[in-house]
Amino acid sequence: MASLPTAASWADGAGGVGTDSRNLSAALAAGAAAGAAEADWLQMLVQTGNLSCPCPSAPGLPAASPAPSQPRANLTNQFVQPSWRIALWSLAYGVVVAVAVFGNLIVIWIILAHKRMRTVTNYFLVNLAFADASMAAFNTLVNFIYALHSEWYFGANYCRFQNFFPITAVFASIYSMTAIAVDRYMAIIDPLKPRLSATATKIVIGSIWILAFLLAFPQCLYSKTKVMPGRTLCYVQWPEGPKQHFIYHIIVIILVYCFPLLIMGITYTIVGITLWGGEIPGDTCDKYHEQLKAKRKVVKMMIIVVVIFAICWLPYHIYFILTAIYQQLNRWKYIQQVYLASFWLAMSSTMYNPIIYCCLNKRFRAGFKRAFRWCPFVEVSSYDELELKTTRFHPTRQSSLYTVTRMESVTVVCDPRDAGTAKCSRKKRTTLREPSFDGGSHSNSKSASTTSSFINSPYTSVDEYS
Fold this sequence. Notes:
This protein is mainly α. The chain has helices spanning 21-33, 38-47, 72-76, 83-113, 120-149, 155-189, 198-221, 242-277, 288-325, 335-360, 362-371, 382-387, 445-455, 462-465, and strands at 223-228, 231-236, 406-414, 424-432. It has 3 domains: 9-76, no CATH class; 83-371, Rhopdopsin 7-helix transmembrane proteins, CATH 1.20.1070.10; 406-465, no CATH class. The two termini are 36 Å apart.
């Protein structure tokens, strides 16, 4: 994903195949000695193969010009944007960052601050929200500034972070969605199996981040900054040049886009056929329709999240592949606008999830109302308060089965001879029942089965899906 991308990664090929740092220095020295204009010696660098351009040329970059003898004004101003266009792009990117950061932080607060929201699915949503908020906060605006000015202002250490963290965050985001898809699949297709415990969920989340760090590590290892006359560049200098760079990012696209979307497509197709095309296996409780409706809502919400992610990132991946294969596209007059638009769309994927949760889930909606209750037009009703309170019954630690281990019945006995005095005796009969592995009891199986069905079906909870 072209380091998501650094706007001047056209320098990725520095020191590439057939060239080394001495060629770059020699070219610079030759250009300076000849008294060439800045545009002319930069053009010479591109032509000698020291600078390649998989991303759009930055403002003032003459690589987009067909001839070095062209007037300086045409070379340096080809990608300089008018003030009004810069203002519009700044507003667009600013909105993405504000909504993504604050929206996802509120999602994290809603889940962690309310016990009723602490489910397996929601823990993965916390991981997804953290990754999205981090990428919006630490990558989006920095990369936007770099794309506009073609000048790296943030130092060598942040250059490494800028090239490393976005791939890590995207990997964590999409594999959190994949984990949710697999969890929904197991809960709906095979509901009798125990759900992930809190410890297992933490292990899965930790494993996702470790794999993300390993995948993105080469971006950190080969990141470089180059101080040139009039500008400083931040780029990834691969040992074997642009070809190695291209192969790496094709692998990244497969791992963080194609493969997880394939897994989620298969799982949600099977789940959708089960929920909308037939009965849920093993689910014959009295609250069947209520659970079915709740499960459909959650699955529908997650499908929308995945589809929006896929749509937002598709143009960016297509852009990278096409500009890497067809280098002449980087010389197109409007390529910078195409880049800014595709990158904005990709980054906007970080801001849609909180909006989706608020619109499609009543508990998240209640949480957002509580977060914005200080606004004069936001009213938190008593119903909203109840939505986030802990339920009366709690699932066991190893599954979401509501276990009933003790049942009491009260028998009232009245003596007909004492009808006038209405004296009645109250007798309490207590029946202890040992829970069995299937959620029933060893005695009075019919009564236990009725009680279990009234509370919920095995290994599922309406709270889990509401």
